[in-house]
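Look over this record before class:
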Amino acid sequence: MKAPVAEHPGEPPAAQPVARGFQLKKVILTAIQVLVTSGLLYWVFHDPAKRAQMWEALRHAKPEWLLAGFLCYGVVEFLAAGRWYLLLRVQGVKLPLWRVGALLMLGIFFNMFMPGGTGGDVLKIYFLFKEIPEKKAKTKGLLAVLMDRLIGLMALIMISSVIIGIQYNWLRTSPVARHFTWVLMLILVCSLGAIVFSFVISGFGLASKLPKRMPLRDIMIDLSVAYNAYARSWPASLLALFSSYGIHFASFFLFCCAARALDVHVGGVGGPEIPFGALLTVMPIILTLCSLPISVGGTGVREWLFVVLLGPLCGVSQPDAIMLSLTGFMLTAAWGVVGGIIYLLYRPSEHTKLRDVERQVYEFEHEIAEEESADGMEGQDEPPGDEDDDEGDHKKQA
C-alpha cells in the first residue's frame, strides 16, 4: 500500500485534507464575494439617468475638499503604521518606521482589491516574516499583528457604543437604520464576548484545554500569549489604543470631506449641507458591515448602505449617496494603488503564489498554537513539588 504523497514539499500527508478543505472554503467565499459585488454594482449603475447625475456631481467636485479627504486617509495610514511599529518594538522586533509603513500599504492594497480569503493581514504577516526570518522573531511579529487588530477592534467598540448611545433616538426614526444599528450592536457584543473569553482563558491558563476542533482555537491561544507579553508593557498598549481613536475618526472624517466636495445637501439642492454629526453616526455602521467578507473590498455593500441609511435619515438622494460612497472609496483606493506599486517592487524573486502565502501563514499560526498548547499541558502535568525541589537543589549548590 503506497503512502500518501504530500501536495507541497515538506508538508505532512496528514495536513492534506485540512489544506484541501481550506482551499474549498476560499473558492466558495470568493464566488460569494464576486456574486454579491456584481449584483450590487448592477443595482447601483443600471439606471442611465442616475449615472449621468453621478458623473455631473463628480465633475463639479471641489478639489480642496478632495485633497483634504486624501490627506485624512494619509493620517489613518500614518497612525496605523505608528501603532504597529510601537507594538512590534514592545516585542523586540526592530524595523524602521518607513518599512513598517510599506508593509501596511501592501495590506491596504489586498484588502481593497483582492477577492477571497487572502486579506491584508495575511500579506502583512508573510512579508514581515521575510524581514525577520528567525522563528522566535516571527512569533513575536505574528502576536504584534494580532494585538494590532484587537486594539483597533476595542477602540471601535468603545466609539460605536458612545455614538449609538447618544444618537439612538435619531437612528430609530428610520426602520432600516434601526435594524442595522441592532446588527452592529450584535456584531460588537459578539466581538466583545470573544475578547472577554480570550482574557478568561489566558488569565486562568485554560488555553491548552480548548478542544482541537473549536472554531478560532488557534487565534484564542495566540491571543493568550499576546496578552501576557503586552500586559507588561501597558503604557505602550494604552498609547496604541489612543492612536486607534485617531485612526477611526480620521477614516470617518474622510467621508465628511467627500460630502463637502460633492456639495451633498439634505433633501437635495437648496437644502442645508449634510451635518458632520449625521455622517459620524452612520459611519461605524457602514464601515463595520463593509468589513464583513461578503464582497470584494466592501464594494457594492458600501454604496447600498449609504443609500438605505442616508436616504431615510437625511433625505439624501440616491445618486448623491452613491457618489458620496464612491468618492470616499476612490480617496482610499488612491492609497491602495500606492500599496500595489510597493507590492510590485517589494515582491520576492520567487513570485510565491497567493494560495501558498496564505497556507504558510495559516500553518505557522497553527504551529504556534500547538506549541503553546503543548507547553501548557506539560506545565499542568508537572508535579506540584518539583518547583520547590528545584529551588532546594539550587540553595544546596549555593
Observations:
- The chain has one domain: 43-379.
- Residues 135-171 form the longest helix (37 residues).
- Residues 1-15, 379-398 have pLDDT under 50 and may be disordered.
- The radius of gyration is 24 Å.
